[in-house]
Amino acid sequence: NRLSKGVIKAYRLIIYRALLSVTDFQQILMDLSGIHPSQDYVKYHNFLESMGGFYHEGVFDHEGFLNKIGQNETFKTIYQDVMSEPPLDYEKPKYLEDCIEKVRQNAEKEMLVFLLQKTLESDHGGFGDEILKNKRERTKIIENEVE
Known about the structure:
The chain contains eight helices and two strands, in the order H-H-H-E-E-H-H-H-H-H. The protein is mainly alpha-helical. The longest helix has 17 residues, at about 5-20. The termini are far apart.
């Protein structure tokens, strides 16, 4: 079950970029997996090990990571909701704001709201490194979108 390119792009933006902007990588992975050490340490440890498998010579394989978590039914449901209105204008702040608004309508999706907000706050090229080189440019674009 390969994810479509549009879905992978949205995953990359929303989750991969969000992960980059959060200092405690393991905490986010724990929240994403829904597995907590106090409940099932072995399962949690195995999950972290599997995520570690996506590092190759120090570079994180986000395609592989996104495909892996894309097999999780919870994430499928969330992203089907978020991306129910194609085409994806996934590199624009307005798209992220719309995602946040959609997710806010469902209280069970607070974690995704958090990730989306982290993406907006990211110092790591939250809308694509090659498109926006620094936070000042990104902030300017967000302000223009809001106006």
